Amino acid sequence: MTVDGRLARGERTRTAVLDAAVSLASESGLDGLSLGHLADSLGVSKSGIFAHWRSKEALQLATIDRAVAQWQELIIAPALRAPRGVRRIHALHEARIDFYATRVLPGGCFFGTTEFEFNARPGAVHDRLATVLADWTAFLERLVREAVELGELPAEVDVALLAYEIDSFGIAAAMRSRLFDPESTYRHARRSVLDRLRGLSPDPTLLPEGPS
Amino acid sequence: MTVDGRLARGERTRTAVLDAAVSLASESGLDGLSLGHLADSLGVSKSGIFAHWRSKEALQLATIDRAVAQWQELIIAPALRAPRGVRRIHALHEARIDFYATRVLPGGCFFGTTEFEFNARPGAVHDRLATVLADWTAFLERLVREAVELGELPAEVDVALLAYEIDSFGIAAAMRSRLFDPESTYRHARRSVLDRLRGLSPDPTLLPEGPS
DNA sequence: GATAAATAAATACGACCGGTCGGTTTTATT
DNA sequence: AATAAAACCGACCGGTCGTATTTATTTATC
Lengths: 212, 212
Fold this sequence. Notes:
Radius of gyration of chain A: 19 Å
Structural class of chain A: mainly alpha
Strand content of chain A: under 5%
Helix content of chain A: over 70%
Oligomer: homodimer
């Protein structure tokens, strides 16, 4: 397998551009993300960036995919290292709040910003975001279902409802933390999920008492 | 008290413009709200609109105030007609979900869209939105505190935390309902608050069993 | 009916937008 | 060493943005 250095260089550039695009879009949205700003923030020319994607929409879609990869790496992967069941659900939520609290992205949450931005605008970007949200929801529900199957949550639990609740606490944290007192926002976001899981679980000792 | 008809007419025009601005901004954000689009959607000239506000930022701030008035009228006022306590909290949340479900605004939620849009952008708009969110939070907490004082919620309840949770379920509904299945989203949003209140209240019969 | 204030329209400006193009540099293959 | 391909650049296009100025049209009050 020979590696074409020209393609490799392009791939590196492409990834670097998309990382910057995710950051910028978390602040200004996918629409506010302009080729000029993106180029300036990377110290390259506008056309040098544009050459990699055939249109702005293609760039937006690629940016979404990159954000998904980042989410997978920084939130989902760490959670999957926790044991199945309520601890994994808790680890996922904690990783998410940490992601917001450590300000990985200047805008806080790429998906919160862009999903609100495009929820009323038809088009390919809307559809891609809808798919991403559906996948994320299915993943959350899978984690909840696993906890039920392990007996760490009662069988009567409404899986989809609990997944909705947990995600809600995360979304609200992303939204409020930049407008409101971040510390109490994060404390509430962590507390709400912890209380919910401990309140439901037949064995609350699986989880810490206080927000870790 | 003599009313100057010229001023009255100006006020009427201004209100009509701001109503359209709230609708447009709920779809495209306060930044995407352009004077040209706004003028077109009202059948007037761009400068005819611009004359009423000295800058786009002034228009954005006025639009926020108008959205607050609309929220006050359609969500807060109806809730205040319910008796104090958990029933009022429930009525508030139901009015909110109804507001989303009946598609009063094409974008779903003005505040969800704009608060995510501006949470990472310093400036007057950010600050105004922060104040609005703080007022809304204080109002929600007041309703929860009243329920505690009435004995309809246990004294140990963390008022700020419960207010956070209730608002989270509303925010998530606004965000998900346009990308995902609206029916299940609204059902989850209603269920989550109802279950939470009934679970906490010493007298669950105050609230209906199923989503109304 | 005259007058002054308020409102609306017309027009234009500079900045920036996404997008195009021809040409240069870097890199791999032959 | 020659050729081809990919990456990258600078200049430029038409269009739209917010903004400003200037002119015309309502409308209330004297």
